[in-house]
Amino acid sequence: MEAIDEGRSSPARAISDGAVRLLRDYTGRGPNKARTVLNDDMVTIVLVDTLTKGERTLLDRGDEERVMATRREFQRLMRDDLVALVESQVQREVVAFLSANHADPDLAVETFMLAPKAPSA
Questions:
Q1: What single string gives the DSSP state of each residue in 40-99?
Q2: How many other C-beta atoms lie within 10 A of the C-beta of residue 14?
Q3: Is residue 16 classed as helix, strand or coil in its secondary structure?
Q4: pTM of the model
Q5: Where are the domains positioned within the chain?
Q6: How many other C-beta atoms lie within 10 A of the C-beta of residue 65?
């Protein structure tokens, strides 16, 4: 299952679009770019330009830790919705969710480890 945002209706595209919507719903602003990569064991979403104007102002004033703490809280709150999004698109259970943000450059990465595939009959 190798895909990188291919086609309008691919699972990777649907995951990217859904993650952008969720981030916008939770923070008031979605990222400018999202790219999802699928393989046999994991799904990774890379989000670019995610920070709000307020977060950028805090960063400019040297308060990176507060911005990163806020982002960690949003990720905790969004976890169930992000997991449900991925599971619905790949039809596999997510067994682990890992999330990280970086301030400069403004990037976020959401990684979902998938349960092993059921054996084929």
A1: SSEEEEEEES---HHHHHHHHTT-HHHHHHHHHHHHHHHHHHHHHHHHHHH-S-EEEEEE
A2: 19
A3: helix
A4: 0.88
A5: 3-114
A6: 10
Q: What contacts 29, CB < 8 A, 6 or more positions away?
A: 23, 50, 51, 52, 53
pLDDT in tens, 2-19: 344 555 569 999 999 999
Q: Residue 106: helix, strand or coil by DSSP?
A: coil
Helix (H) or strand (E) holding 32: none
Bridge partner residues of 101 (DSSP): 108
Say if residues 89 and 14 touch (Cβ distance below 8 Å): yes
The 10s digit of each residue's pLDDT in 85-114 is: 999 999 999 999 999 999 999 999 999 999
